Fold this sequence. Notes:
mainly beta
Amino acid sequence: xxGTAAITLANxxxxxxxxxxxxxxxxxxxxxxxxxxAAADVLGDALGLIV
Length: 51
């Protein structure tokens, strides 16, 4: 759901993801576990999930 995204680590396995899609800002959470990455965010009425 992100046009551009900035990812900031909160700790070793958790991060915050902030995005801008066509001027609409969104914030979500992400998780890291080895080579696995998952992120979720809300953009308007839509929920996004990336695994």
